[in-house]
Design brief:
It is built from eleven helices and twelve strands. By secondary structure, the chain is α/β, with parallel strands linked by helices. The strands form two sheets. It has a seven-stranded parallel β-sheet with strand order 8-7-6-9-10-11-12, sandwiched between helices. Helix 5 links the parallel strand 6 and strand 7. The radius of gyration is 21 Å and the shape is elongated. The model has no long low-confidence stretch (mean pLDDT 98). It binds NADP nicotinamide-adenine-dinucleotide phosphate. Residues 69-70, 90, 93, 97, 146-151, 168-171, 200-204, 206-207, 228-230, 254-255, 277, 279-280 line the site of NADP nicotinamide-adenine-dinucleotide phosphate.
Length: 311
């Protein structure tokens, strides 16, 4: 008998029929309200909150197979209490997200968007020795706040650009240090010494709001702040103020606290490159993410351990 499963409707084109055998799929669009019923598996997008109430409305549920590596949209404590497995999609999106992080580093350091706007506006009057002067990367310091899969992949791309690497993580990464010359430092040294700070920690009660007025003030004048992790790591109003005052040189963001809404002051702030949460958005990666999420469902429903559990 096919197992009743809820799968985000937006994943439909990324999945092959063969991946859905033995599942009786109900496609659940992101704008549909929280479902109530007898489904035993759910594959949500990261924009769907799955908390205590939602889990209560799905009393037969055995697995939440989140289609993302971050799982801050799932109340894992409530899930564990109800003996519902939670899985994510680590690894397959590492390289795509690291590439996008570099797109933001280069776009902010070399003022790409301002250049594009100037050309498109028809106001460009020709080459000028002082036009859109940016930050030379060679000899500068890249600070990785978080050096797990994605943070390290970003760091591994840095040596050819001549950047020195500092990183903060709960545990040291000897192999990463050996390969890249990176140095493990405490957060305060990372913030104080880096010319580019790039965030790669998950959103947890300890990390939420860690970039705020106080931590921004500890950063060097002219620093570039990059965030491809989660929006709520940053207090957006404080970031907007730091950009307005010119304390921050620029900021490249892929994620926001209240997506898809963006704090109006941040939207209007100078020297930003704002992307619509496309860190993992390559066709290969998105197919692999959907495949892993559904493979986790098959594993759990056939009585095997999940492939990529979050706890
Ligand atoms: P990961 O491998 O689990 O790495 C997380 C890193 O954060 C680790 O180095 C970890 O330290 C560190 N960390 C965790 N809590 C910390 C704390 N309180 N203080 C300091 N460091 C802490 O995760 P990942 O695969 O690299 O993904 C990172 C995040 O990127 C995800 O959680 C997700 O939110 C985000 N993401 C965004 C996109 C996008 O589309 N923009 C795509 C993919 C992922 P240890 O190594 O010592 O454990």
């Amino acid at each position: 008998m096919a197992h009743p499963a809820l799968i985000a409707a937006e994943l439909k084109n990324l999945l092959e029929p063969a991946q859905l055998v033995d599942l009786d799929v109900t496609w659940l669009a992101a704008d549909q309200p929280p479902p109530k019923g007898e489904w035993i598996a759910i594959v949500p997008l990261l924009s769907r909150w799955v908390g205590g109430t939602e889990l209560k409305n799905l009393p037969k549920l055995r697995i939440v197979a989140n289609c993302a590596v971050g799982y801050d949209n799932v109340d894992v404590v409530a899930a564990e209490m109800r003996k519902v497995m939670v899985t994510n999609t680590p690894g397959v999106l590492t390289e795509a997200t690291a590439d996008l992080t570099w797109a933001l580093i280069l776009a902010t350091a070399r003022r790409l968007i301002e250049g594009v706007d100037l050309v498109r506006s028809g106001q460009w009057t020709g080459w000028h020795p002082e036009q859109l002067l940016g930050l030379e990367l060679r000899g500068r310091t890249l600070g990785l706040y978080g050096a797990g899969r994605i943070g390290q992949a970003v760091g591994r791309r840095a040596p050819p650009f001549g950047l020195r690497i500092l990183y903060t993580a709960r545990t040291a990464k000897p192999e990463f240090e050996r390969d890249t010359g990176a140095t493990h430092v405490d957060p305060s040294r990372l913030l104080g010494e880096s010319d580019i700070v790039s965030l790669h920690v998950p959103s947890t009660p300890e990390t939420k709001g860690m970039i705020n007025g106080e931590t921004l003030a500890r950063m060097k004048r002219g620093v570039i702040l990059i965030n491809t992790a989660r929006g709520d790591l940053i207090r957006e109003e404080a970031l907007a103020q730091a950009l307005e005052r010119g304390h921050l040189g620029a900021s490249g963001l892929d994620v926001y606290t209240d997506e898809p809404a963006i704090h109006p002051r941040l939207l209007a702030a100078p020297r930003t490159v704002l992307l619509p949460h496309i860190g993992s958005a390559t066709e290969d990666t998105r197919r692999k993410m959907a495949a892993i999420a559904v493979a986790n469902v098959h594993s759990v429903l056939s009585g095997k351990p999940p492939l990529t559990p979050v706890y």
